[in-house]
DNA sequence: TCTTGCTTACCAAGGTATCC
DNA sequence: GGATACCTTGGTAAGCAAGA
């Protein structure tokens, strides 16, 4: 989505003159100002919190985007939503990274930064390939391009750090779909990441949660365990067992550990468990950032490089 | 039985804190 | 300020379970 949002944004530069700064301000506004409650759209649980709630939501948003009117902001938002929906519906080819090959065949499958999904990898002995050049991030081929790779490619290969925004979406998705349903989380929330990536991220996240009471550590993105003041960190232990220890049924209401004295709360300082600003949340069943009648999880986020949608 | 999806364990790279 | 150690993170192979 972020990619979609960015694509939309850049596409819109021609129409509305939205600069990256404008987009950023716009996104920040969206993240911090709750949409007004709307009767027909609030059935899913509504969005609490935030600083607005009034009818002039667009005005509030516009107030945070220098030089933009409420109407412009609204149009911009709707354009973003349209693009996101179009991409999710498979009607629009997903953006690709610079230097990326066009996806062959009809599959619009995104070019992902997960090498697993995009290029065959020599299946080697686990030990033997460790340290081997072709597994190292600078060394494997992409689409037969060989070793000559651009800086951008190398940058991409070494892994794209999760942004706070992505992590928040991850938390929201976790809250909504529960642990284990990485596919849904990836598809509906963190659409810039593959399910595998989401699962991997989750693994680290839960490990982090469970080691919260260990000695002092550096802060990390995984210290963010709540969104909008609502703690969405799961009390469940590490992702354990193939038996799918998934104690959280999909769509079920998760208990918020912070309210139930769970680790995962602040352990050394502010970053830990600090509420993520933004009205996004509410936990279960709540659409993310939904002003007027739009599909959930539309939270435009701009990226320096448009992350491709992972979902065909 | 085969396919799909999830979990775990491991690695390399990069960043940060600490020590000199 | 530089060197070193430690920590965090993203990615992926392998194993396992559930469903078709």
From TrEMBL:
Residues 10-81, 154-206 form the Myb-like domain. Residues 104-113 have a biased composition (Polar residues). Its main location: nucleus. Residues 1-60, 96-160 are annotated as: Disordered. InterPro entries: Homeodomain-like_sf, Myb_dom, Myb_dom_plants, SANT/Myb, SANT_dom. One of its GO terms (molecular function) is DNA binding. Residues 47-56 have a biased composition (Gly residues). SMART domains: SANT (SM00717). Keywords: DNA-binding, Nucleus, Transcription, Transcription regulation. GO terms for biological process: response to gibberellin; response to salicylic acid; response to sucrose. It is found in: Nucleus. Residues 1-11 have a biased composition (Low complexity). Residues 162-210 form the SANT domain. Residues 154-210 form the HTH myb-type domain. Residues 12-26, 114-139, 150-160 have a biased composition (Basic and acidic residues). One of its GO terms (cellular component) is nucleus. It holds the Pfam family Myb_DNA-binding. It comes from the Eukaryota. PANTHER family: DUPLICATED HOMEODOMAIN-LIKE SUPERFAMILY PROTEIN-RELATED (PTHR44042), MYB-LIKE PROTEIN I (PTHR44042:SF67). This is Transcription factor MYBS1. It comes from Musa acuminata subsp. malaccensis.
């Amino acid at each position: 989505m972020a990619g979609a949002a960015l694509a939309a944004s850049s596409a819109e530069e021609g129409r509305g003159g939205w600069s990256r700064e404008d987009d950023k301000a716009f996104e920040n506004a969206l993240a911090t100002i709750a949409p007004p409650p709307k009767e027909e759209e609030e059935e899913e649980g509504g969005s609490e919190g935030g600083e607005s709630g009034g009818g002039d939501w667009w005005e509030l948003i516009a107030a945070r985007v220098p030089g933009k009117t409420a109407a412009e902001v609204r149009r911009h938002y709707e354009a973003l939503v349209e693009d996101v929906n179009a991409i999710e519906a498979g009607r629009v080819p997903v953006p690709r990274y610079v230097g990326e090959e066009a996806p062959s065949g009809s599959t619009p499958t995104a070019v992902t930064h997960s090498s697993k999904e995009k290029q065959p990898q020599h299946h080697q002995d686990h030990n033997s390939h460790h340290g081997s050049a072709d597994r190292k991030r600078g060394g494997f081929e992409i689409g037969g391009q060989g070793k000559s790779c651009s800086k951008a490619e190398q940058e991409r290969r070494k892994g794209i750090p999760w942004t706070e925004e992505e992590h928040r979406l991850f938390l929201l998705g976790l809250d909504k779909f529960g642990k284990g349903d990485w596919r849904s989380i990836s598809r509906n929330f963190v659409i810039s990441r593959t399910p595998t990536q989401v699962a991997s991220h989750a693994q680290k996240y839960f490990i982090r949660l469970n080691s919260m009471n260990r000695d002092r550590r550096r802060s990390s993105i995984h210290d963010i365990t709540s969104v909008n003041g609502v703690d969405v960190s799961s009390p469940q232990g590490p992702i354990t067992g193939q038996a799918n220890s998934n104690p959280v049924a999909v769509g079920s209401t998760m208990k918020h550990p912070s309210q139930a004295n769970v680790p995962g709360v602040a352990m050394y300082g502010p970053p830990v468990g600090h509420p993520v600003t933004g009205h996004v949340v509410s936990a279960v069943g709540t659409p993310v950032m939904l002003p007027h009648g739009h599909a959930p999880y539309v939270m435009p986020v701009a990226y320096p490089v448009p992350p491709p949608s992972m979902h065909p």
